[in-house]
TrEMBL record:
The chain crosses the membrane at residues 24-48, 208-228, 260-283, 303-326, 338-357, 363-384, 416-435, 594-614, 649-670, 682-699. This is FtsX-like permease family protein. The keyword Transmembrane helix applies. The keyword Translocase does not apply. The lineage of its organism: Bacteria, Bacillati, Actinomycetota, Actinomycetes, Micrococcales. Coiled coil: none annotated. Keywords: Membrane, Transmembrane, Transmembrane helix.
Length: 708
């Protein structure tokens, strides 16, 4: 082993110019691979940390009718993002209990006060803007919620306490809690109620694991495997010399594996060092839309060491599988087995079965998608050889020779096609998730400059609440606030109007005129109101139902002739206890954080595959120039020799691209059955056409002889 190690060291770190290409390829690829895998591990770890934070602020539900506090989750949408407003109020006699204090706070805010998260404060939505007094009980910078109470730096969260004399208590409505867990667990429990947020600020651990494995780790491993097979004339010559001198192929492959491991150790060590030093100050990932807490993405040396070991083993394995020159000439090439299609078939089965069986086995679907991605890459040599065999029997000239080369060495000829196949499939799946469930945005949205209709409600209504809300809405264009009486025996709430003129602002949304000639509400308008809003209309003498608190209302219909955003409305009425808004004319939901993370991970995967393609194209260009010198003496012109190289690259692409495209369409289609994707054939077709065209253009440019 000592002799083999010395030979491998000289082979790896020799200073010949011919070795430089392989040295640079292996070192850079393994450094990048180590850094990206370390980042992926850190992202999965931080997703679990966020999950623990959500669990810590998920309260224990009271098992009786008392409890220690009332809790009412509310919220609104700001610039497409959820703002979670959690109202809390201690039950009489439990004011000083520490167990009802949410994580990230030193104590409950005083009545009428609120504490906001750092992310909300950066958006300019401090407590005063939302109608509250500022509290100083937050454990974070500037009195904001502390790190223990927020998942990320940009999570939008408010803890609020009703004003003095107001309460959250309403029969059957507020959640009664015993407090927050001192030792939170991630397991679901019957006495826990998830009011932590409308949605996690980042993808949940299973989603994050799927994203990193599918779009980061998998392309990284493929790039590393191919880079470790970068060719070197010196390396090939030395292995051939050893074989000629009687050294067994097993020992030669051991030397080649050690050579690859030594180069990978240098690159992987550099990648690990950069990860350990840089990760503590890293707080965001491009396009993800998330800002993590300081140190969240830190990579400890122990984790980095395991990643280095894995990358080195992968590079060594790949280096040892390079065909040996003598053995390649001494026997004819073997056909690539059709068994390489088995993972593709298995992956397709796992993708299709959940939808056909009517189950919601999302993990089975995603597992099939990962198997398909791996299987497509592995099956390309077989597909390329299959196409080349058929083309060889029908073609002549340079195409025949190119087909013969693909048949002779399908694995070598298929490297670019394998990367392209992976890029097509990953892109198709990413696009399908991004435009589908990952977007979280409905296509039914209110016009940006059209009228607005909101239903609002709150707890502990008082006689002057509607008037106060009306006064606050005066700056808004043509705003009208109409009290909303609770539903009667027919289950339909009633809008109270002073006169039919109050409905004029609603006129543009109605097909018919809201009022008759004598100023009464028209029958058609009544029918449309009941159909569109599921409400009735009743006349009232004033906006306030009366001075008796028993007659106070806690709901209203807000009409505006101009645009009013949900966050504008919440800012104007948010101080009302448990204030809630519902946009009647829009079904749009806040964008799911998963969509931004899909875009970010997909960008990383495209960069990885793009770098691998560039490396393979550069190596292919070197081979074309080398082969041209060997083909011209046997009678081919320089132009014909160049075309042989181009078609050697093109045939595997023609074999692999259609298969990956179809598999992408199938995954997109059947993913709709488990709510994982949206069928997007147009986007997949456009994406596939663009990436194939770009690869072919690069191939054509790289195959040109130098000097042209």
């Amino acid at each position: 082993m000592g002799v083999a190690l010395r030979l491998a060291t000289r082979l790896a770190f020799g200073r010949d110019a011919e070795r430089r290409w392989r040295q640079v390829c292996v070192v850079l690829a393994t450094a990048l691979a180590t850094a990206l895998v370390c980042l992926s591990v850190a992202l999965v770890a931080v997703s679990w940390r966020v999950e623990e934070t959500l669990a810590a602020r998920t309260p224990d539900v009271a098992q009786d009718d008392e409890g220690s506090a009332y809790l009412v989750p509310r919220g609104f949408v700001k610039d497409g993002r959820d703002v979670s407003v959690l109202w809390i109020e201690p039950v009489a006699g439990h004011e000083g209990e520490s167990r009802i204090v949410p994580p990230g706070l030193e104590a409950l805010p005083a009545p009428g006060e609120a504490v906001v998260s750092p992310g909300l404060l950066r958006l300019g939505l401090g407590p005063e803007v939302l109608g509250f007094d500022r509290s100083d009980v937050g454990q974070g910078v500037g009195g904001t919620i502390g790190p223990e109470g927020v998942g990320t730096q940009d999570e939008l969260l408010v803890w609020a306490v009703p004003a003095e004399g107001r309460t959250l208590d309403r029969v059957g409505i507020p959640l009664r809690i015993d407090g927050f867990p001192s030792a939170p667990t991630l397991e679901a429990e019957d006495d826990r109620f998830d009011v932590s947020a409308p949605q996690s600020p980042i993808p949940r651990p299973p989603e994050m694991r799927m994203l990193t494995v599918f779009l980061v780790v998998l392309p990284t491993l493929v790039m590393t495997w191919l880079a470790a097979r970068a060719r070197s004339a010196v390396r090939a010559g030395r292995s051939e010399d050893l074989l000629r001198h009687g050294v067994s192929p097993r020992i030669v492959r051991t030397i080649l594996a050690l050579e690859g491991a030594l180069l990978a150790l240098v690159g992987s060590g550099l990648g690990a060092l950069v990860s350990v030093l840089v990760s503590p100050v890293l707080t965001t990932i491009p396009l993800s839309g998330s800002r993590f807490l300081p140190g969240d993405l830190s990579v400890d040396p122990g984790t980095a060491l395991w990643v280095v070991l894995g990358v080195v083993v992968l590079a060594a394995s790949s280096s040892s599988t390079i065909p040996l020159a003598v053995s390649r000439r001494s026997r004819p090439p073997g056909r690539v087995s059709a068994w390489r299609l088995l993972p593709v078939g298995a992956g397709l089965t796992l993708v299709v079965v959940p939808d056909l069986l009517g189950t919601t086995a999302t993990q089975v679907f995603y597992g099939g998608a990962v198997m398909l991605a791996v299987g497509l890459t592995w099956s390309v040599p077989y597909l390329a050889q299959l196409v080349a065999l058929r083309r060889r029997s029908r073609e002549g000239g340079h195409r025949w020779l190119a087909a013969a080369r693909v048949v002779h060495a399908p694995r070598t000829a298929s490297r670019v096609a394998a990367l392209l196949s992976l890029a097509i499939y990953l892109g198709a799946v990413s696009v399908s998730i991004y435009v589908g469930p990952g977007s979280g945005v409905s296509s039914h949205e209110r016009s940006a400059d059209g009228p607005a209709v909101y239903v609002v409600d709150w707890h502990d209504g008082r006689p002057d609440d509607v008037a106060r809300l009306t006064e606050g809405l005066e700056p808004l264009p043509g705003a009208v606030v109409l009290p909303l009486a609770p539903a009667g025996e027919d289950g339909v709430p009633t809008v109270m109007v002073r006169s039919c003129s109050d409905l004029e602002v609603f006129g543009p949304l109605l097909v018919v005129a809201p009022c008759t000639a004598d100023g009464e509400v028209s029958g058609e308008a009544l029918d449309l109101f009941r159909t569109m809003l599921h409400m009735g209309i009743s006349s009232a003498g004033s906006l306030d139902p009366g001075g008796d608190p028993a007659e106070a209302l806690d709901g209203a219909l807000v009409l505006s002739s101009g645009p009013v955003s949900q966050d504008q409305l919440y800012v104007l009425g948010g101080e009302l206890p448990a204030f809630n808004t519902y946009d009647v004319l829009s079904e749009a939901q806040p964008r799911n954080p998963l969509s931004s993370w899909i875009g970010s991970a997909w960008l990383i995967s495209i960069i990885i595959i793009g770098l691998a393609v560039v490396r393979e194209m550069a190596e292919h260009s070197r081979e074309v120039r080398h082969d041209a010198r060997a083909l011209i003496p046997i009678g081919l012109s320089e132009d014909e020799a160049r075309r042989v190289g181009s078609w050697t690259l093109l045939l595997p692409i023609l074999a692999a691209a259609p298969v990956s495209y179809v598999c992408g369409l199938v995954t997109s289609l059947f993913g709709t059955g488990v709510s994982a994707t949206s069928y997007a054939p147009l986007w997949i077709t456009v994406y596939t056409a663009v990436i194939v065209a770009a690869t072919l253009m690069a191939s054509r440019a790289g195959s040109r002889p130098s000097g042209t």
